[in-house]
Each structure stands twice: as C-alpha cells, then as structure tokens.
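input
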Amino acid sequence: MDEIDQLILEAEQQLENPKGTHVILDLISCDREKLDNEEYIVELIQTAALISGATILQTSHHKFEPQGITAFCLLAESHISIHTWPELGKAALDIYTCGKNTDPILAGNYIKDELGGFELSTYTLIRQ
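output
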C-alpha cells in the first residue's frame, strides 16, 4: 500500500468513527423572564445534559447586571454552554459531545422548547 492509499484509508476510518457532534444554536423570541433566571438556566442546561445521555462533571455560571446569564456544564463527554440576552429574547448555545452514546441535538431541542424560542441559526458539525 502506497502513502496515498494509506491516507485514503485513514480518512475513511475517521468518517466512519467520528469523535463527536458539535451543535451551535442561536435562539430568538425566547421567554425573557426565563432567560434572566439564573437558577432556571443552570437547571435547564443540567437537565439537557442528562437528557442527551451525558455525564455532568461540573457546572459554573454568572449573572450579569442588569441582565443576562452565562452558564457552562463541563461534561465527561465535553460541554454545554449558554449565553442569554433577556432584553433581546436571545440565547446562544454551544453543545459538544464526544462518542456515540450522547445526542447533543436532543439537548439543543430540549433547551429551545423550554425557552419557547425559535431557531435563528443552527450549525451541526461532525468532529473527526
């Protein structure tokens, strides 16, 4: 097998066994009260992590003044983060999970449904 054939074989193996799925989701028209409720947002991303099949290692969050929240779940499989702009009804999500036993799309859909928002944009990347 020559060098080019070896590179092709390695590329095909990577496509068959992706490292993970990365979902980036921008939401609009979300419930503004929920977007500014720190306890709710933390519980929301923790529940989304569990629904996706992920294992939560740690959660961190910060409430901004006069409004807005950033929250992050460190997962054994990677992470979920959310940034909220209650005054605009917007939220930005970043959900990345490694392996085949988790579903970040399920987590994103759960968060969107709970916030009552609409997808402005969604990007799903298969990480090799």
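quick obs: The chain has one domain: 19-127.
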